Amino acid sequence: MNTAIAHPNIALVKYWGKRDAALNLPAVPSLSLTLSGWHTRTQVQWGAERDELILDDEPRTDPKVFRVLDLLAQHAAIPRPPCRVVSHNDFPTGAGLASSASGFAALVVAGAGAAGLELSRGELSMLARRGSGSACRSLYGGFVQWHLGTAPDGTDSVAEPVAPPEHWDVRMVVAVVSEGPKSTGSTEGMERSRKSSPLWSTWLELGPPLVEQARQAVMARDLEALGTVMERSTYSMYSTMFTATPPLLYWQPATVALLHEVAALRARGVGAWATMDAGPQVKVLCLPGDVQTIQSALAPHALRTLAHGPGPGAYLEP
Ligand code: 2P0
Ligand 1: residues within 6 Å at CB? Predict the structure, then answer.
């Protein structure tokens, strides 16, 4: 039991900014949808010759991976031997498609399994958060909230399920604009927004009410309300990026063309709402019956388009 599968999640209400960088505590709460389809598969060998990471068939150096395994061992009060970690994503890594979310969620589940530990989802979520904030949400399937928390040690800043995947069969159409790695990593980008955007305090105030509105929209299965909140959160987050010094320009020309297509679809009465993350890809929230129409409209501006529904939380391969 040392191999885990985890799926990426896309934030409907965004996490952008840390109140404690060392503990990876968020400045705002967030709410996400774990996607089916894409996945990270990670195997941890607990006891190897040396620490070694193989990501997408290439040897890599990422101290954070072994730091998270250290924290896992510390949490369980056991020594950590050298570990070999082999991980594979079936989608582009580091391109604003949430590979760090599924990556660290799979790592903690595989690591705990390999070490023979039985940890709760809350404990695993807290440990995954230390690797990458958004990873704490991929421990759960469907609609998930990451609580802001108030404890200085971060023990209450964990994710919790809002509604399971079967609650609501929505789709996220992903228009891939670029498969290359992003220009500025999320951690650096959010620190730049926090330190230099004059809109930062407004962004912090918006977080809690946006999450509450999104939670209510999910419970009521109200796509228009959820899509509206999602776009508001997305554009507010981007406002802190555009007004940072120097500005964070994750968008490409095709990103803007896709946003116009989404607006045109809505004007034609199609239920489609857009979001973006720290990258140029555009993701469109909709119902299954509109997927084909939306994919046809987006395809001319994208390298490819895919549609994913709600997926499960991270799990150990039997
Ligand atoms: C999110 N993003 O809520 C937001 C929206 C990008 C934009 O979480 O620094 O890789 O490792 O905690 O989780 C991407 O940031 O950042 C992210 P760290 P992470 O999905």
Answer: 11, 14-16, 24, 30, 100, 132-134, 186-187, 277-278
Please state which of the ranges 151-155, 170-174, 261-265, 295-299 shows the lowest mean pLDDT.
151-155
Mean pLDDT score, 136-163: 96
Whether 261 contacts 282, CB under 8 Å = no
Closest CA to ligand 1's atom 20: 11
Report how far ligand 1's centroid is from the alpha carbon of 79 (Å).
Answer: 30
Cis-peptide, bond into residue 246, ω within 30° of zero: yes
Which atom of ligand 1 approaches the CA of 133 most closely?
Answer: 12
Site to substitute for ligand 1 among 16, 172, 186, most atoms within 8 A of C-beta: 186
Distance CA(103)–CA(307), nearest Å, equals 20
3 state SS of 152: coil
Neighbours of 62 (CB within 10 A): 14
Q: Is the pLDDT of residue 127 over 80?
A: yes
What integer is the mean pLDDT of 199-218?
98
- Residue 66: what residue type? F
What's the rounded Cα separation, in Å, for the pair 143 and 140? 8
Angle in degrees, 0-180, between the axes of helices 200-219 and 186-196, rounded to the nearest 10 = 120
Phi/psi-derived region of residue 235, left when phi > 0, alpha when psi is between -120 and 50, beta in every other case? alpha
Q: Which SS3 state, helix, strand or coil, does residue 39 take?
A: coil
- Tens of pLDDT, residue by residue over 238-261, are 999 999 999 999 999 999 999 999
